[in-house]
C-alpha cells in the first residue's frame, strides 16, 4: 500500500500525445511498467497514477528529445487488481527513481484554504528563503485566529504586495493596498497608448500598476528558491485558485503569459475587496511619517493632489514596502530619512532577439516542425546559457580590475516581444513579454554580465545608491544612442562582435517603437563589452547558429534585479533602521522574479501577523 514516487520516466516524442496532455498515456504506462518491472503494461490501471511533473528535455547530449515525467503511484489501486499483482506490490522496494512517498507531509491547498482551515504556521525557519514554512497539518488548533483590527498599509500591488495583503486580510487585518499605477484595465490602455502613440505615463506603464512589473510579461513561474518548497507550492496553488491553468502545477517550466495574468489579477483584486481590503490605485506614497524611531504612517498623493502640491497623511500600525526596484524615488526618500541601504550586485547587458524558427531548429533539429506556433506537440524552444569570464581571458583597455564575471541569458521569452520598461522618458531600458501560446515569430533573451560596487566606483558612483546611478547612466546613454522617442539602439550580433555599426542591414525586430543602428559595443565600459564579446562565441558553440546576422542586439537591459538592499530583521521582517516598516519583495533585495517575490510577500505577511499576535499564542 501507500504512495510511491516514480521519477525520470522518459517517453519519446512519438509515443507521447504532447506537452499539453497531462494525463497518463499508453506510452507513459509502458515506461512505468519498465521502471517498476511490471510484466504487462496494459494491465496497469491509469487511475493508479498521477502526473506530478512533466518537462520536455531536448538537451544536445541526448540521443533524441523526450518528455520526462514524475508520477505518483497509488499502490492500493493496484492491489485490487488480482492476486498476482498483490504479490508484485508486496515485493516493491525503494531504489533510484522509485521511492515510497508520504503526500500527507506536503501542503495540500492554496493559501486561502491553509489559512481558513486555521491549522498552523510552523515556527520553523524555511530552508529556502529564511521565512516561515507553511505547514497545513503539524499543529491543528481547530480555532480561528483571533481577529484584531490591525491597520496595515501595503505599498505596491506587485506579487510581493498582493500576497502579503492576501495573508494579512485573510487573517483579519484591516489592510489598505496602495498602488501608484492603475488597475489592469486602465493600465492596459496606458500601455496601448505607449505602444501606439509613444505616450509614456510615468505612473502607469510596464513597471508600475496592478500586478507589478511582471504583469505585461512572459509570466514565467520558474524560481531558484526550490520548486517543491511548501511556500512555492502554496503560491502556485493560489494562482490556480485565481484562474491560472492547473498545468502550472505540473509543467516543468510553467509560464502564464500576459493574456492569462490580466484576468487572474482581476480575480485576485475582487477577492481582496470581498475581504474588505481598500485598494487605492493611482495613489503614490511620497514619504513616511516617522515618530520616535517608528514609522507611524505614510504621505500619499494622487495626480490631482500632485498638481496642487498637496497630499494626505494616513496613519497605520505597520507599513509593508513592496515597491519593486524601479521605484527609485522611494530609495531616495528612505535615504533622506537615514535608512540603512546597502548597494547590491546585479547584472546589465543587452537583449538579443532571433527568429523563433531559428531557435526551434537549433534546439530541436528535425522536430522543429512539431512546434506549430505554440499549438504543436513540443513547446516553443527556449534556451538558458552561461559562461564565466576571467579578467585575463579578455583583452581589456579599461583600467578596471580584472575579475571573474559571469555572463548569462536572463528572462528568455520564447515566442515573445521586446518591450519598453522605462519609467522616465530620458531613460531607455527594455525587457521581454509574451502571450500564453508564445506564438510570435521572435525569441528574445537578455545577455547580461554581473556588476558590483567596484564597477560603480570606477564610474565615480559612490554610496548606497551607486548601483541605481550606474543603471541610470546606461539607460541615458541608450536613450541618446536611440535618438529619442523611445527608439532602441540596435546592432546585429555579428557586427557587435566586430565592433562595427550595422550600416548595411538591420534585421526586423519585434520592438514596436522602432530600432536604429548604433554602436552598442561602445555603450558599456570595456570589461562588460569584452565579457559579452567573449561569451557570445561560447554560446554559439553550445547553440550552433546563435551567432547570425538575423540576431539583433537591443540596448539596454539594466533592471535584472535590485541594485539596493533595504536590510531587515530576518525573524520579524522589520527594517533594521526604523520600527513599523517592513521592506519586502524584489525592491528590498529579498526576491528576484514573480514567484520568489510572491513567496517573500507570504512570509512577510505571516511574520507581521506573528509580530502583532494576530494568531493568538497557541501556535
Ligand atoms: P513589483 O512587481 O515591481 O511591484 C511593485 C509595485 O509597487 C508596482 O506595481 C509599483 O507601481 C508599485 N509602487 C512603486 N512605488 C510605489 C509608491 N511610491 N507608491 C505606491 N506604489 C508604488 N519575473 C518572472 O519571474 N518571470 C517573468 O517572466 C518575468 N518577466 C518580466 C517581464 C518584464 C517586462 C518585467 C518588467 C519584469 C519581469 N519579471 C519576470 C520580473 C518580475 O516582474 C519581478 O521580479 C516581480 O514583479 C517583483 O515583484 P515585487 O512585488 O517585488 O515588485
From TrEMBL:
Signal peptide: none annotated. Pfam families: FAD-depend_C, Pyr_redox. Residues 345-560 form the FAD-dependent protein C-terminal domain. Gene3D superfamilies: 3.30.70.2700, FAD/NAD(P)-binding domain. It comes from Hevea brasiliensis. InterPro entries: DHPH_N, FAD-binding_protein, FAD-depend_C, FAD/NAD-bd_sf. It comes from the Eukaryota. This is FAD-binding domain-containing protein. Residues 151-206 form the Pyridine nucleotide-disulphide oxidoreductase N-terminal domain. The lineage of its organism: Eukaryota, Viridiplantae, Streptophyta, Embryophyta, Tracheophyta.
Amino acid at each position: 500500500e501507500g504512495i510511491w514516487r516514480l521519477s525520470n520516466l522518459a517517453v519519446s516524442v512519438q509515443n507521447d500525445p504532447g506537452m499539453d496532455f497531462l494525463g497518463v498515456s499508453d506510452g507513459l504506462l509502458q515506461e512505468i511498467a519498465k521502471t517498476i518491472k511490471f510484466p504487462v503494461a496494459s494491465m496497469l490501471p491509469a487511475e493508479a497514477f498521477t502526473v506530478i511533473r512533466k518537462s520536455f528535455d531536448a538537451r544536445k547530449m541526448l540521443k533524441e528529445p523526450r518528455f520526462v515525467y514524475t508520477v505518483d503511484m497509488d499502490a492500493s489501486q493496484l492491489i485490487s487488481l488480482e492476486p498476482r499483482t498483490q504479490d508484485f506490490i508486496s515485493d516493491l522496494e525503494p531504489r533510484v527513481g522509485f521511492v515510497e512517498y508520504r503526500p500527507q507531509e506536503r501542503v495540500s491547498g492554496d493559501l486561502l484554504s491553509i489559512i481558513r482551515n486555521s491549522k498552523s504556521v510552523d515556527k520553523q525557519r524555511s530552508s529556502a528563503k529564511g521565512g516561515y514554512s507553511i505547514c497545513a497539518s503539524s499543529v491543528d488548533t481547530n480555532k480561528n485566529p483571533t481577529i484584531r483590527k490591525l491597520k496595515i498599509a501595503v505599498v505596491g500591488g506587485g506579487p510581493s504586495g498582493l500576497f502579503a495583503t492576501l495573508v494579512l486580510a485573510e487573517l483579519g487585518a484591516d489592510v489598505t493596498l496602495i498602488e501608484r499605477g492603475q488597475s489592469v484595465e486602465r493600465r492596459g490602455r496606458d500601455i496601448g497608448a505607449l505602444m501606439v502613440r509613444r505616450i509614456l505615463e510615468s505612473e502607469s506603464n510596464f513597471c508600475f500598476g496592478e500586478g507589478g512589473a511582471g504583469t505585461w510579461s512572459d509570466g514565467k513561474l520558474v524560481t531558484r528558491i526550490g520548486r517543491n518548497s511548501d511556500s512555492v507550492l502554496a503560491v502556485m496553488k493560489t494562482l490556480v485558485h485565481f484562474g491560472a491553468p492547473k498545468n502550472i502545477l505540473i509543467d516543468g517550466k510553467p509560464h502564464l503569459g500576459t493574456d492569462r495574468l490580466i484576468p487572474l489579477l482581476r480575480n485576485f483584486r475582487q477577492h481582496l475587496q470581498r475581504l474588505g481590503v481598500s485598494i487605492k490605485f493611482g495613489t503614490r506614497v511620497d514619504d513616511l511619517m516617522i515618530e520616535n524611531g517608528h514609522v507611524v504612517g505614510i504621505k500619499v498623493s494622487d495626480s490631482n493632489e500632485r498638481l496642487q502640491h498637496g497630499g494626505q497623511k494616513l496613519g497605520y500600525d505597520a507599513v509593508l514596502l513592496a515597491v519593486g526596484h524601479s521605484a527609485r524615488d522611494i530609495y531616495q526618500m528612505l535615504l533622506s530619512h537615514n535608512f540603512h541601504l546597502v548597494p547590491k550586485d546585479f547584472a546589465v547587458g543587452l537583449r538579443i532577439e532571433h527568429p523563433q524558427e531559428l531557435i526551434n531548429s537549433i534546439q530541436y533539429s528535425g522536430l522543429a516542425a512539431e512546434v506549430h506556433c505554440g499549438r504543436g506537440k513540443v513547446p516553443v524552444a527556449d534556451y538558458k546559457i552561461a559562461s564565466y569570464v576571467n579578467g585575463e581571458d579578455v583583452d581589456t583597455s579599461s583600467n578596471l580590475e580584472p575579475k571573474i564575471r559571469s555572463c548569462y541569458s536572463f528572462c528568455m521569452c520564447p515566442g515573445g516581444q521586446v518591450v519598453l520598461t522605462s519609467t522616465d522618458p530620458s531613460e531607455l531600458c527594455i525587457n521581454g513579454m509574451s502571450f500564453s501560446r508564445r506564438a510570435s515569430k521572435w525569441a528574445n533573451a537578455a545577455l547580461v554580465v554581473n556588476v558590483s560596487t567596484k564597477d560603480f566606483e570606477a564610474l565615480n558612483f559612490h554610496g548606497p545608491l551607486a548601483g541605481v546611478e550606474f543603471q541610470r547612466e546606461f539607460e541615458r546613454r541608450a536613450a541618446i544612442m536611440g535618438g529619442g522617442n523611445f527608439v532602441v539602439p540596435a546592432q546585429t550580433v555579428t557586427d557587435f562582435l566586430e565592433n562595427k555599426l550595422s550600416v548595411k542591414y538591420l534585421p526586423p525586430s519585434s520592438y514596436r517603437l522602432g530600432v536604429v543602428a548604433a554602436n552598442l559595443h561602445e555603450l558599456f565600459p570595456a570589461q562588460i563589452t569584452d565579457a559579452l564579446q567573449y561569451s557570445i562565441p561560447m554560446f554559439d558553440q553550445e547553440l550552433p547558429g546563435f551567432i547570425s546576422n538575423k540576431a539583433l542586439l537591443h540596448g539596454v537591459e539594466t533592471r535584472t534585479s535590485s541594485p539596493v538592499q533595504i536590510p531587515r530583521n530576518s525573524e520579524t521582517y522589520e527594517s533594521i533602521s526604523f520600527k513599523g516598516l517592513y521592506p519586502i519583495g524584489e525592491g528590498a533585495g529579498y526576491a528576484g522574479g514573480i514567484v520568489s517575490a510572491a513567496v517573500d510577500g507570504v512570509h512577510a505577511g505571516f511574520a507581521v501577523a506573528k509580530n502583532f499576535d494576530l494568531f493568538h499564542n497557541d501556535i
